[in-house]
Amino acid sequence: MKTEKKANITTIPFLGDIILSGSRTLIGIALGLLTSGILIALSNANPLVAYGAMIKGAFGDIYAFCNVLVRVSPLLLGGMGVAIGNKAGIWNTGIEGYMYLGAIGSGLVAIQDWGLPSALHILLAVIAGMAFAAAWGLIPGYLRAHRGVNEVTCTIMLNYVAIYLTNWLVSDAGFFAESGAFFPMSKIFQDSAQLPILLRGTSLHPGVFVGIIVCLIFFFLLKYTPFGFRTRMLGGNPNAARYSGVDIKKQIILVMVLGAMLGGLGGAIEVIGLRHRVYSDFVTGVGYECIAVALLAGGNPVGVIFAGFFFAILKVGGATMSIETGVSSSMTSIIMALCVLFVIGVGLTDNHRVKKKSNKADAVAVVKQKEE
Amino acid sequence: MSYDIIISWLQATLRWSAPLLLVAVGEIFSERSGIINMGIEGIMLCGALCGIAASFYSESILVAVLATIVLGAVMGLAVAYLTVSRRTNQVVTGLMVNMLATGATNLLFAMMSETRSTRVGTFPIIFPQAMQRIPILGEIFFCQPISTWIAFILPFIAAVVLYKTKWGLNVRAVGDHPQAVATAGLSVIKIKYQAVICSGIFAALGGCVLTLGEVGYFASGGMTGGRGFIVMAAVVVGGWDPLRTAIACIIFGAADAAQLRLQGMGSVIPYQFLQMLPYLITVVALTGMVKSSHVPKTWGAAYDPDSH
Amino acid sequence: MQEPKFALQMTDITKRFPGVLANDRISLDCKKGEVLGLLGENGAGKTTLMNVLYGMHQPDSGKILINEKEVEITSPSKAIELGIGMVHQHFKLVETLTVLENIVLGIPSNKVFLDLEPIRRRLLELCQEYELYVDPDAEVWKLPVGQQQWVEILKALYRNAQVLVLDEPTAVLTPSESDQLCRAIRRLTSEGRSIIFISHKLREVVEITDRVTIIRDGKLVGTIPTPEATQAKLAHMMVGRPVSIDRRPRQALQQKKPVLVMKDVNALDERGIQALKNFNLTVHAGEIVGVAGVDGNGQKELAECISGLKKPVSGTISVNDTLITDVVADPKFIGFIPEDRQKTGLVMDFSVAENLIIKEYDKEPYAEKRLLNLQNIKKHAQDMIKKYGIKTPTDTVKVSTLSGGNQQKVIIARELDSEPILDIACHPTRGLDMGAVSGVHDVLMKERERGAAVLFVSAELQEILALSDRIIVLFRGEIMGEVDGDTADAFTIGQLMLGQALEEKT
Predict the structure, then answer these.
(1) Nearest-CA neighbor of C77 among C107, C47, C104, C51?
(2) C397: DSSP letter
(3) Does C138 touch chain B (CB under 8 A)?
(4) C contacts of A14 (beta carbons < 8 Å)
(5) Which residues of chain C have pLDDT under 50?
(6) The CATH number of the domain where B72 resides is what?
(7) C321: DSSP letter
(8) Tens of pLDDT along C414-473?
C-alpha cells in the first residue's frame, strides 16, 4: 500500500519529485529546529521568543532585510558552485578557497588606478576573480579526472593554501597590502571598482540579484541543454554515461572549473560589493556553509535559492536573537549544522525503504543473478 | 643567535606535534576501517574546551582527561551512528560536525566567562630540574610536559595494536574487504563503530593536549586552526601507517613551529608559505599515491550489509 | 553408541524471497567421508541452499541436522562452530593481508595479541598433509589465483571443517591444479570429512563425487549414486525436458551475409583470468545466434567486448568490416541490451523520456544549437511509449518507478528503434513476468525478420531453443559446440553446457 502511494506522488510531473525529496528535507529541517529549540530552552531562554527575535531581525524592517540580501549573496553563488558539482556526482568542497582566489583576482584589478569607467572596471575585476578561481579549480579537477585523486581531500588542502596565500598578499606583499595597517588588509579598492549601493543607508549591493540570476541560469542549463543532460547523466549513472559516449574526464574538469568560477564570483562580489578591501580570513566558514546550502537544496538550483535564504535569515536573525534573548549568535552555526545532520540522517531511511520494496520480478532477477 | 633559535624551534616542534600525533592515531584506525572521520577538527575543538573547563572546575588534570575521553567517545559514537548505521555521506557529516562544534564551543565558552582570565594548570613536566638543565637535550626533551611524551609513545603503541593484535587485524580487514570479515563470522558494523569511537576519543584528547599541554587557556574562534585537517593530510602522506604518519605529523609540526618563529624574524621566505607547506605536500602525495595498495579499499564508501 | 552415518542432512528446506521461491522443500544429505555433487543451472537454487547452510539466510521451514542432531544455524560463526566450512566461488580474502592473517581472521580467542607462530605451524602441517602449498607470509594479492584458492580451502580446514562446501572450486584452476585438488579431496574424505562439490563440469563431477544431487527451479530433481549417473542422465536431469519448446515459426535464411565477425578474440575477466579463448564467431544478417552456457563461462566478457566496454587482449571484432570500437555508440550499428538494467542500461533518476535519448541527446532533432528541444523529446517518448507498449503514467516519471518489464521495454525502444544492423541482447528477459517475456521474444523475432544480426545470450534454455537459428554453447571461454536451432534439444545442449563435447557424427 505504501508503495502505491509513493508511485502516485511521483507521477505528478516535475513537482512530484520535488515534493517527495522536499518533504524529507523539510522533516530534517524541522527536527533540526526542534532540537535547537530544546538547546535554547536548556540555556534558559524561551525558544519561541528566540526564533521570533530571529524573524524580526531578518524581516523587521527594510534595513534588516537588506542585511539578509547582502549575506545571501555568497551563499547563493557558492552554493550553486557546489550544487553543480553534486549534479555530476563530485563534491567540490573547495568553495572557501575559490572565494579567496576570486577576491585576490578581483582585488588586484580593483586597486589599480587606471581611470576606467566604473562598469568596465567592475567587469574586469569580476573576470579576473573568476579567472583566478577557475585556475584554482583546474588543479583538483585535473587530478580527479585524470588521476582519480579524491577531490574532497584535495580541495580542502587547497583551501588552506588559499587562506595562507591571501594572508601573505594582504600582509606582506607590497604591491597589494596596505602598509602600516593595524589588521592585514589589501589596499583600498578604487571608487570605480566598488559595486553601487542600491539603497541608501544599507550595504545592499547587486550581489543577491547576481546570485539569483546565476541560479536561474543553471536551472535553465541543467534542464534545457545537452550540457546539463550530460552532467546529470554523469551524476546519475557513470556507467551509462560512459556507454553513451560522454567524455567523462572532460565533463569532470568542466564542472569543477565552473563550480570554482562561481565560488570565485561569490568571493569577488563580496569584496567589491561589501568590504572594498581584501581582508585576511574574510571568508571564514562561508565556504562550508555553501556545502550545507547545496545539500539542503538537494543539488537543485531553485533549492539553492531557498536554502541560501534560509541560512542568511538564520545568520542575520541570529544577531538580533542574541541581543534580545541573550542566546549567543553562535547558536546559528549550531542550528545550521543540526538541520543538515538531520536531513542527511533522515534521508537515508527512505533510501533503505525504497531499496527493500523491490518489484516482485526484479527480486527474481536479483536472486537469479546471485546464483552462479 | 641562530643556535638558540634552532633549539627553541626543535622544542616547539615536539610540543606542537603532540596534539597532531594524538589525533592522527585515532583517525588512522577510523580510516583503516573505511570511514573517513572528517569531524576530527570539530571534536578536537570540543576536546580543547572540555579540557580547560573540566580542569578549571575540578582543578584536576586527571578529571579533565577523563572528561575529555568521555566527550570524545560520545561524539565519536554520534559520527559512527550517522556514517555507519545511517550511511550518510562521510564528508558532509564531518564538515557539519565541525560547524556544530564551532558554534557549540563558542556558545559554551561565552557562558564560561570565569575561565577566561585564569590560566589553569597544564600538564606537568615530570623530569627533575637537574635533567632539564642539561644543555641542548635538556631543553628539547626534558622540558616537555608529560603529555608530549605520551603523544610520542602512542604511535608505537598504535602500530603494535594495528599490526599485532586481533582487533587491529579486524580493523584492517574491514576496511579492505568487509564481506570477507562478515563471512568469517565477525560483525563489520561493530568493528567500524569501535574504530570511529576510537578516533573521537583521540581527537578530543588531542584538543585537550593543545590547550592543557602548554597554553592553559582557550580562545574562541579557531583554537584548533585547521589542525584536524592537517592530521588528515598527515594520514594520507603517511600512507595510513602509524609510524610514517607520525613522521609526517612531526614534519608538519616543525613547519608550524618554524613559521611562528619566522613571523618575528623577517626572513626571505614569507612565513605563510611555510604554513602552506603541509597542504601542498599532501596534494603532491595524493597524486602519487593513487595506484598504491595503501589506501584502504573501502575508504569513504558506505557498507551495505545486504551485499555479498 | 553408534557413530552417526550422516554428517549433514538438510530436510525440506524452503526459502522464499519476495516474489520468488528459491528453495522449495529441498532435501539432501551427505554421509561422512562422502563427496556429494550438487548440480544445477543458474537460478536453480544452489547458492541459496548453501547460504542457508552457512547461516547467511534462515530457512522459512525445514530442518538441518549435523551428525544427525538437529541444529539451528543462525549466523556464519555458528556454522563455523558446527564444522561447516564454505569456499565461495568469489574469494572472501582480504588481499592486502598475508595468508596467515587471512587464516586467523575471525578465529575466536581470548588473546589480545596475534600469536601467529602456532598458526603458522599448523598451517604448514595442513599444507603438507593435503599437498596444497602456500607461503604463509605472502600477501594474498601477490599470489596466483590457484594459490588463493588453496588459501580459501586451508582457511576452512584450519577451522576443522567436517563438512566442506566447495563452490565451483576448479573455475580458476589449471588442469594440474585441479588434479591437486582432487587428491586433496580424496585425502579429506578418507579422514571422514564430507564434501559438497558444486560444479557444472561433468567430467569432474563424474570423477570426484560419490553421489550427485540435482536441483532445478528451486526443487530437488533427485539424487543418484555417481556410478549410475551417465553423462546423458545427468544432463537430462539438470535441464529437464521442456514441456513444449514453443519454437517460433520462421522463414529460412536466404543468403548468409556476415555482419559481426569475431576473430581469435582473447579476453580476460576482472581477475585477470582468461575469459575468452581464441574465440571465433560470425553472426549473419537476419539470424539469431543463441549463446547458451552456465553463467561465468565468458558470457559477460563476450558482451562487454562486443559492446565496447572492454578491450580484448588480442583478436579483432568487426561489424560490417568496421572495427567495433569505432561504431559502438552509433545507434545505426549496434543496439545493446545489457545484462544489468539498472547498472548499465538506465539512469534510474532520469525520466522515461530522458532515458530514451541518452545516446542522442545532443543531436537533431532532440537538440538544436546547444539547446534541448523538449518538445521533440516528449513527442519521441510518447511515440515510443505507444509503439512498444511501455506502461507508464507519463513520459516524465522517473524510470525507477516502472516495473522491470517496462524498464526493459524502455531499453529495447531506445536501442532497437533505430534499426541497428547488430543487436546484442544479454539475458533480456531476466526478471520479467511471462507477458513481458513473450513481448521480448516477439521483438527479437521481428528484428530477425527485419534483417538484423542478433546475438542472444541467455541462461534460460527454453528461450534459446525457441528463438535461435544457431546455438553455440560457451564453456570456459570457448565454444564447446554449435548446434542447429531447428534440430537442437535441451538434452544435447545440457551436455555441452557441462563441458561434454558431442560425439563425432559419422
Answers:
(1) C107
(2) S
(3) no
(4) 396
(5) 504-506
(6) 1.10.3470
(7) T
(8) 999 889 999 999 999 887 777 788 888 989 999 999 989 999 999 888 889 899 999 999
ipTM: 0.86
CATH 3.40.50.880 is right for the domain spanning C255-333+421-506 = no
Residue B163's domain comprises 2-117+148-289
Of C359, C367, C404, the CB nearest to A362: C404
Look up cell 628539547; give the residue.
B140
Note whether residue B125 is domain-resident.
no
Tell me the C-alpha distance between C453 and A331, whole Å: 67
B184 to chain A, any CB pair closer than 8 A? The answer is: no
Decide if B296 is inside a domain.
no
Judged against a pLDDT cut of 80, whether residue B290 lies above it is answered with no
DSSP assigned state of C141: G
Bond into C365 cis (ω within 30) = yes
Residue B75 lies in a domain: yes
Burial (Cβ within 10 Å: 0-12, 13-18, ≥19) of residue A180: exposed
**Contacts of residue B181 in chain C, CB cutoff 8 Å?**
94, 105-106
Count up the domains in chain B and report the number: 1
CA gap C142, A224 in Å, rounded: 50
Nearest to A368 among C43, C338, C436 (CB): C43
B 270-299 near A (Cβ less than 8 A): 270, 272-273, 275-276, 279-280, 282-283, 286-287, 290
Examine residue B307 and state whether it is found in any structural domain, yes or no.
no
Nearest by CB to residue C396, choosing from A13, A226, A363, is: A13
With an 8 Å Cβ cutoff, are A230 and C361 in contact? yes
pLDDT digits (tens, 9 = 90+) for B164-220: 999 999 999 999 999 999 988 899 999 999 999 999 999 999 999 988 876 767 776
Residues of B with Cβ-Cβ distance to A345 under 8 angstroms: 82, 86, 88
| DSSP 3-state of C183 | helix
Longest dimension (CA), chain B: 65
Whole-angstrom distance, CA of residue C249 vs CA of residue B217: 89
Chain A residues with beta carbon closer than 8 angstroms to that of C426? none
How many Cα neighbours within 13 Å face the side chain of C419? 5
- CATH code: domain A62-328 is 1.10.3470
Instruction: Quickly name the fold that domain C6-238 has.
Output: Rossmann fold (3.40.50)
**Assigned C-alpha cell, C229:** 549417473
Residues in chain A with CB shorter than 8 Å from the CB of B270 are 168, 172
What is the pTM for the complete model shown?
A: 0.87
Q: Are C132 and C184 in contact (CB under 8 A)?
A: yes
Q: Is B99 within 8 Å of A289 when comparing Cβ atoms?
A: yes
In chain C, ranges of CATH 3.40.50.300 domains:
6-238, 255-333+421-506
Measure CB to CB from residue C344 to each of A16, A240, A365 and give the nearest one.
A240
Write out pLDDT tens, residues B208-263: 998 887 676 777 666 777 889 889 989 988 889 999 999 999 998 888 888 777 77
* Segment (H or E) for A259: helix A248-269
Q: Which of B207, B164, B170, B286 is nearest to B21 (CA)?
A: B207
Residues in chain A: 372
Residues 6 or more apart in contact with residue A357 via CB below 8 angstroms: A2, A3
Nearest Cβ partner for B103 among A165, A168, A332: A332
Q: Give the burial class of C137: count Cβ atoms within 10 A of its Cβ; 0-12 exposed, 13-18 middle, 19 or more buried.
A: exposed
Q: What angle do CA C392, C414, C454 make, to 5 degrees?
A: 125
- DSSP H or E segment with residue B4: helix B2-32
Q: Name the closest residue on chain B to residue C92, using Cα atoms.
A: B180
Instruction: Please determine, for residue B1, whether its predicted confidence score (pLDDT) is greater than 80.
Output: no
**CB-based contact, A239 to chain C, within 8 Å:** yes
For C182-240, the pLDDT digits (tens) are 999 999 999 999 999 998 777 888 889 999 999 988 889 999 999 988 877 887 787 77
- Size (chain B), residues: 308
